[in-house]
Amino acid sequence: MSQPDDAQADGSRADASQANDAQADRAYLARVLAELIAVRRARLLSMLVLAGAMLVAGLGAALQAQGDRIDAVLLFSAFSLIMIGIVCALGAIIAWTRINRDILDSVAASRPAKAKAPRTRSGGMAVAIGFVVVGILFGALLWSQTPVLAGAVVLACLLLACLGPIWAGELSAADDRLAVILDSDDELAARFADFTPIWLHEAMEADAAE
Fold it and tell me: Which of 12, 59, 170, 180 is deepest in the core (most CB within 10 A)?
């Protein structure tokens, strides 16, 4: 093979390698963005679920505290749970304000932390079953002495059981949701095609080393 042919072959291989690297960059960045979107949605839903669970438990404790003699300890517990529920509701409002932030600007400076949550339906159901079992156990223990509180605890645990499926569902559908967003937003898709955050290659090398 002549030298021009060798040079042409080397150039073709270099172009193919650069194209593969570019595709790998886009695929990795797409996974990060998809997870960011899923985490934002799951965080909002989780805050709503937590707010509902805490308010239900707090109201149940408050109702149980009323009687011939007011139980001050139970009433204080009810107040604490209701306050936690209000804080979670405020957290949901904050999460709602962040859910529509530009995803590319959000990852420009640093990579978002990986979500430590169930990513499969079976993992989400395991979390849900765990909360249901805990709710039933506490309900059985409390029923004879405080039936109102027992019912509230069971209902709160049923609400908390939604957390596992919420995170698993959002994370498992993250790639499809990002694809829909890019298909519906030409401007975002064009920016994504040329967007390379400063941490991308270092993060890819770190993940490859693992």
Answer: 170
At 98 the three-state DSSP class reads: helix
* CA dist 208 → 28, 109, 114, 203, 205 (Å): 11, 21, 15, 8, 5
User: What is the Cα–Cα distance from 38 to 172, expressed in whole angstroms?
Assistant: 9
Helix (H, G, I), strand (E, B) or coil at 117: coil
Q: What angle, rounded to 10 degrees, do the helices at 163-172 and 3-65 form?
A: 160
Q: Six-digit token pair at 198?
A: 């400063």
Question: Do 38 and 170 touch, CB atoms closer than 8 A?
Answer: yes
Please enumerate in sequence order all residues whose Cβ is within 8 A of that of 59, keeping only pairs 6 or more positions apart, or say none: 78, 82, 152
Dump pLDDT digits (tens) for 8-40: 544 454 444 555 667 888 888 999 999 999 999
Give the integer Cα–Cα distance in Å for 210 and 199: 17
Report the alpha-carbon distance of residue 192 to residue 18 in Å, rounded.
Answer: 18
Side-chain-side CA neighbours of residue 86 (13 Å): 8
Separation between Cα atoms, residue 111 and residue 35, nearest integer Å: 11
Alpha-carbon distance of 154 to 133, in angstroms, equals 9
Give the global pTM.
0.83
Q: To 5 degrees, how large is the angle CA 64–CA 70–CA 74? A: 55
Q: Which residue is listed with tokens 């898709």?
A: 189
In single-letter form, the type of residue at position 17 comes to: S
